[in-house]
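Record pair follows.
FIRST:
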Amino acid sequence: MANTEVKKLQNHLSLLRDEYSKLQKKYYDIELKYNAMAASSEDNMEETFAFRLLNHVRNLYDSVLYSDIKIKLFNKDVNAHKLILSARSDFWNESVLSSKDELDWSDIDTGVGIAIIKWIYTSGLDVSSVEFALDVLKKAHEFNLNNLVESCEQYLISSVNIRNCVKLYTVAETVNASRLLNYCSGLLSTHWDDLNASDFEHMSGPLLYKMLKSKTTFPLHSAIKLDREDVVFLCLVENSSKFLRLLENGPGDLPAIWSCILSQFYFQKKIKTQYTIFGEATSDLICSNALGQLSHET
């Protein structure tokens, strides 16, 4: 038991070391670019056009000066500028903004909306919680704000633990946040045996099935243990040709194999309840197919 826990800690430390190495490399690359820019610039960098332009953009946050569009939040309007929005993302291209004088963000949490607008103008992000970072991440992905997605990923990676790992993995998969996804995947592999059905209850069937296939030897067994008949059904559908061959050869000792895993009546109750719309014969076939797949996995 002690050796197992030590191994988990070692794997977790390995993930952290990898992430630290990535951050070091990113810092080194930024430093090189900064030094090259400083060497080729005028002596007083604060007087360069680029510096003055960036500083001017920061000061234009919620300013009426040059404002040609408003962003409507739930309980306030924010002055904005089409040029700056367009420069940040192709999501706000000329065809989108040319005829608009207002963007309706009233369906977005006001705090999230303000955080995104501030980032657009200042590149600064003030995150108060994991949930807040997730909300910003989702909208940043929707608006094609890739640099903001990276900033959210960096914060979330530092906040990942075994209890929120599945949730963060799910969001990362949805918005294609590869760094966060890979980090969560590694942590899930390390602590797989510590997870239970409640950890996966909000994960979609297709995503959970994909995960079980990559992280377990017998995905059907795992789906049953997690009480996820939707995932079991996906497994049955994907392997239907194998089930038909097994059924043609007769049930044999399949009921005995099934009872070793779970009560034989488990699926009869679960599957028939969920798939009764397809008729009793279909639900019976699904139950039989489950026995066939268990035989194949065993």
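SECOND:
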Amino acid sequence: MAMDIFLFGHGALPGETSVLSEPMQHWLANQEIERCVVFTTTERTYPKLMEEIENTNKAASMHIETHQLQLISTSTATKPTDVQKQPWEVFREIIKQIDDTHESILLCGRSNALYDHLMWLVAQCLPNTTLLNMDTAEPPLNLFHENIGGEVSPRTIAAMLSCHLEDLLDGRTDTENIGFSDAARLGNMVDAGQVSGIQAALSPHVSRNMVRRTEVSEESVTYKILPDGLGEACQQWMKLRPVVEEHVKTLDIVFGRLPYLSSPNHKGDFSSFDSFFDFMSPLQPVDGLLAVVQRHDEDILGHHVLTLNEAIERFEGTKLVGDLKHCKIVLGRRAREDRFQTSDHLVIINPVATPTFHMEVVMAMLTACLKFERQYGSRSWTVDITEPLAPLRSAISFFAFVFKTTTTYIMKDIGEGDKASDLRRRDLAITVPNSMAFSAMSGLAKGHGNNKGASNLLIALLLAEAKKVDTIDYSNVDPFDTSVSLRQTQHGLLANEIQFFIQEEFVTELDLSAGVVEQFGRTVRINLLVEQGLVNTVRPPKKAATHTRYSLTFLGTFVAEQLLRIRENEVGN
């Protein structure tokens, strides 16, 4: 299968002579790449980056090109939706560049945090598409969407995660055994399976390097989740977690930089942790806060994930400890002044983009969230992806995805040319695409025969809206040409307008009539298209249901475009 790679344009890191890291050079040297797409958000070119890629690639010839994406910005925004739609538009545009019939490798870690997150999400939503970090050339944590094992296997790996969390929450003293569980312990977990069946239940995971099996003695075996199995464990664990009420209080997980106060800082940046609260002001007021403070520090050896209290104890006697104590004081003071609840905050020093370290980060964050809930009760979690250091970003996207959190990004209130944004400060914190995109896509793509009503309706809306918005002649439109930029209509379309489009104007091999021409209202209701956030409805006051207008949301537009790609393949085959 032909291979394509996609990355954002970037220069060399400070102090480096090469743009590409050494691991990435080694990886490229062993690949035969047919096409390379360098994304940009300006007209700037990256000749040194392109030269290094061309010189390193194993293939004799490679097509390399740049593709300019829109700059996500508040510069021209006059209302919140002007900003909220931009990540969805970039997300869809990246997907349009990917050939489903090729193996696609997305390289992340050197772009803006929001673009990195969108690249990560693209890799989850498309087949034959994977992600690598630009610095380490290693993949992120694997979500794993296959169904393996029998009925007991999912419950058993969920029980393994519960045991691991139990060790962390209860402070297991034999730290070398944290996360290890034997069959008896797993068998005692609710619905995990009988002791005799544990080995059979976990055998598929062991063979796929998702679970480590260790023989302690002739009659004793222990199991531990490995990074490749964390995605499956988290998703199965989430299925057993009680559903959080819609209007429950939130726990906001926000990343910031550990300030330089007592330790030397030649850049003069982050001199006080008070700036953290200026940055996160669009998110406020918050009910609960889990702050994750980070730093690259050459004076500290190794890679560390600790609670703030543990870090103060661990680094006692170093220049770092004064900065940590200052951070703790500011967080405590602001919690009292702003009246939000806190438990354990986290500290990450010298993060690295490897699956092993990312698993450590995810487990620490999950433990901190559960410890908070032990103290204050069940919460809805929100993760802000604006400020994680580059090596952490795919781990944070993974966390937000598997635990189905609201995912936010804080836009700058200064746009191009130092023009202040016209938006309210609270509108600068936007919700960005995440697990809802994958869930909606995977659910609707499985329809067959008469069960395709929901996907038919979404595709019909997509194409009918395009016809209504544009003034060009659509009599010869190619319904599979997803390069057309489609804008949402302001007021949507009536049901009979959509049905007329399908019956009279849409001439193609693709049949969209099932569930649209007949049983239109039933298709909307039973597939929960409104509740899932795929379709907006507007019904004028005191008017009959026939006056209801339908339009696609940002999520609905994305899903409809991907369903159209799938149908193209079906008709083509």
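COMMENT: Residues 440 and 532 are 8 Å apart (CA to CA).
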